[in-house]
Every structure is written in structure tokens, then in C-alpha cells.
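New to this. Please check this record:
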Amino acid sequence: MRTISLAADSVGPDLLPLEELADCAEAALRRDGRTLLSYGPGAGYGPLRELIGEWFAVHPSRVVLTNGQLHGLALLARRLAARRTVITEYPIHDRAEKVLLEAGAMLQGVPVDERGIVVEELQNTLQQYVQPAMVYLSPSFHNPTGWSTPEARRAEIVDLVIQQNMLQTQPILLLEDGTYGLTRFEGEPVPSLFDLSQGRSAFSSSFSATVAPGLRVGFFVLPERVAEQLAEVATDTYITPSLLAQATVFEFLGRGSFERHLERLRQGLRERRDAMLAALERYLPEATWSRPAGGLFLWVQLPGHRDGRAVLARARGVSAVDGTRFGAVASAIRLSYGFASPEEIDAGVERLAEAVYDRAA
């Protein structure tokens, strides 16, 4: 029996623009191959930095390209947050937690609900920890829950951190992970924390979720001095990022292919999300779950407080991730609808349900 992955952090190969990316890579090499195959600036490929700077209406010196968003987060934390407090959401993306801890940060979790981080708890935490280095949030299609923060609460978060910064000798970096923001397939777009702060916060994202994960192209929009620091530590770590991958993305964007691809991607993700919701209704009606309007993930609370670890250990032919991996309760599991086909999702949820109800059988 082939295992169906409801655990993957990426979209399936059928949703990747393979042929066009191959053509973009060839065109980038022909146009600028001598630059791309040599060492270059640690901050990344200049034309892509300029384009992203235009998107965010900032000087390209504030844009740093990294080998994926998580690697950039690790480098940034190493420079800014070693032996200092970082305030994060809980549940938290397990890999983000890992890289922050490995960088030497001390994590202080603040709970999230269906409307994102709980502002009152964030306020209490900011008052407790007088000088945290960073507040790191994923307000759009949060990993692992799929929940999103509405505009009013986003504005409260921005106001709270900016007001707190007035009391600090060393500003707190409000860092937004917007990796899944452009995958929205339902509802109206919501302004980013960066927009609501009028550029006084920081933004990070990755083309892994929207173009292809194997390209490993992430980006950060930061205050200028912080951007310089991230570029310095990137240079010290790997000399230069993958300029060919970054130039391939730049070519893909410049052709207008990104917008066309996003439409196909959103349609594919919506079909998969709908298949997962229908399968949960059919096979696990006693459970409760989130209903994301974008992103890749759906959060399930198992019926009867069943232990997700035990359920997944019993499951045959399907994989998912239990809630304890994200600092959450054992009775929760994260399901990803990004990788498997709609038919596989239906079969995978059915196999999962068999494992859930195994004790009663």
C-alpha cells in the first residue's frame, strides 16, 4: 500500500510550473550567465531585490534574498536574538521553532485562537519581557492551524508593538511570515502587518509556496540596518545565495507568468481543501476542524480527546503530523491538503478515520 502524504509542507508536483521554469532558467542563463554562475552579493540577485522593493515601495537595500524563508529566519535570529527572548505564536510551526532555538533564542509563546494571536496575552507578555528581540507572527493561513488574523486584530497587534517600541532603547522587530498570503482562494485580501505599520515592521516570505519549493528563494523586507546585518551574516555563512534560482524567479515574474500561475495554484488548492473538508464530514464527523481560506494546512481536533500520536502510529497508508510537534495538545493533528490529489485526500482521510476509531472496533 502506497502511503498518502497529508503531512507535506509543500504543494504537489502537478501544481508546479515545471516547463515554464525550465525555460526561465535557460533564458536567465543566456541573459546573465556570467553573473549567475559566479559569486555575488550576500543580499542576493539585484534585479529581483529591486522588483520586490517596488512591490513594497521600499529601497532595494531593505530587501534581502535568502535560501528559503526558514534559512533567512535562522540567520536573522542568530544575529539579533541569540540569548534574547523571541515572542511567538503557539501552536508554532515546528521548523520555525527549531531554527529559533538553535540560534540561541529563548521562546515565549502566546496562544492563538481562530482570529490569530490573542492580543491581550501578547500585551501581558510584552509587559513581562521588557526587551524582547522580536515578535514573530504568521497572520495569514497560520502553520499549523490554517487560521488567519482579521484586519482589526492585525491593527491592534501593530499598534501594541509600536507603542511598546516607544518605551524601548532597542526596538522590537515585528517580523511577519507572509509565506502563504498569496495563496488565498476564498474571501477578500487582508492588509499585511507591514502595510498597516506603514513599513515600520518587517516582512518575510518565500516563493516555495507560490512557485516551487526546490528553488529555495525566500525574501525579507527589513529596516535598513537590520537588512545590512542579515546580508552580512548571509555572506559569512554561505558567501553567496543561489543566484541562478533567484534569476529564474525574476524571469518568471518579469514574463507575467506569476499571476497566471497563482490563479491555477489557487484553484488547485481550493479543490484539495474542499476535498479534505468533504472527506472529514464523511469519515470523521465527530471531529472538529478549521476551514482555511488559503495556505496548505487544516487543524483537526480528534473526537473523544484521542491521542494523535497513537492514532498516527496505528494508521496504515497515510501520514500526518500530531499536535505535540507544534507545542499543542496531543488530541490535535495537522493535515496538509497541498501535496496529495483530491482522490488521494479522500482515501487518506478514510484511512485516518479507520485509525481514529480503531479502539471502538
User: Anything to note?
Assistant: The chain has a mean pLDDT of 95. The domain at 4-14+259-356 is CATH 3.90.1150.10 (Aspartate Aminotransferase, domain 1). The CA atoms of residues 50 and 272 lie 35 Å apart.
